[in-house]
Amino acid sequence: MLDVKAGDEQSFTLLLHRYRTPLVNFLYRMVRNREQAEDLAQEVFLRVYKAREDYVPSAKFTTWLFRIATNLALNSVRDTRYQRMEISLDAPVTVDAEEGEEKTLDVAEKNPNIEQHLVEETRKKMIRHAIEKLPEKQRAAVLLHKYQELDYGEISKILQCSESALKSLLFRAYETLRVELAPLVAQHGK
Amino acid sequence: MSCSRMENKILGYVDGRLKESERLEVEKHLATCGACRLRVNEFRAVSDLLDELPVIEPSAAFDLRVHARVAALPVKQSWWAAFLPAPRVAIAAAMLVMATVWVGTRPSNTPQIAETDVPVLENLDVLSNFDVLTELPPPVQADDSGQTNPQM
Q1: What is residue B106's DSSP assignment?
Q2: What's the number of domains chain B is made of?
Q3: In chain A, where the domains are located
Q4: In this predicted structure, what is the pLDDT of residue B117?
Q5: Which fold has domain A1-85?
Q6: I need a labelling partner for A105 at 20 to 30 A (CA). Which of A2, A38, A47, B19 fits?
């Protein structure tokens, strides 16, 4: 980031390559919409670029980056909370692809592993929905802890809370997930 | 260690992020507490389930879009640049200054008159002894014969 601050455009491209995938994944799991997640990730990079001259390496770059991303995601989730469209009961049966695209199930595909595929998709869907049902701050904490592997100090700075409060937040989130995913958790031990 | 204190340690234990001393303390508690042992196993299961979600890749145009948005940003000027006039204004102002200097330094078109050529009013007595006219001459009236007679 210091190279970007010094005006090295190549370093910005390197930052983009290194962090675009974790950022898009984090934002996708926060806002549940791929297109919106990509827009927000672009906005994060744009803000990083705009703020490059004022960047002070007082914290790790990832902390700063994910703090911008988390704030954008939380604002976006709050803005769209009441605008979410209800899924019509008349719509064809679909399975949410992890890629964010809705795939209509075509039984006529004659896929020999269709049953196994369905089981896996249902399992992933359950996990995704369990994460989505978490309150926004708990969700952000779980995503940063589990998928970005940030330490408690970094996450508490991103979410602007104490480490103790963060541990409590994560505990409550895992408790909720444990209940929501009880059938899968029970299978896991077998 | 009590079960309530385990709340802040349990996830760190599952993820292997505890210090050695904390880990030993947790394990000592788990050896005697079945409920916490069960919770540790269930949290471990949840953690493994979260690993099952696949990673998505950004779209192919992602980088291009970021670069396009960066390129569209207005060029940032330094703070003192705000005091600089626009080029057209600067050129106009410079031309005005040059014109003023040129007009100020060019020789005048009015002919220079030598001191010797200036007629000097030497005889000031004419002016200083000038009597104010106090009495006006009588107006001239015309008679019927067409001659004019001054009225007495």
Answers
A1: S
A2: 1
A3: 1-85
A4: 62
A5: Rna Polymerase Sigma Factor; Chain: A (1.10.1740)
A6: A38
Secondary structure of residue B14 in the 3-state scheme: helix
**CB-CB neighbors (< 8 A) of B45 in chain A:** 178, 181, 184-185, 188-189
pTM of the model: 0.68
Give the angle subtended at the CA of B37 by the CAs of B34 and B38, to the nearest 5°.
Answer: 90
Lowest mean pLDDT among A76-80, A163-167, B129-133: B129-133
Contact call for residues B29 and B1 (beta carbons, < 8 A):
yes
Taking 60 as the threshold, does the pLDDT of residue A96 lie above it?
A: no
Please check whether residue B45 lies inside any domain of the structure.
yes
Q: Which among A29, A38, A177 is the nearest to B46, CB-wise?
A: A177
Query: How many CA atoms does the CB half-sphere of A143 hold within 13 Å?
Result: 33
Domain that holds residue B11: 3-50
A4: closest CA of chain B, how far (Å): 13
Residue numbers of A between 116 and 135 with CB closer than 8 Å to B: 123-124, 127-128, 131
The ipTM assigned to this model is: 0.79
User: Which DSSP letter does residue B39 get?
Assistant: H
Position B68 in a domain: no
Q: How far apart are CA B127 and CA B114, in angstroms?
A: 26
Separation CA A29–CA A144 (nearest Å): 11
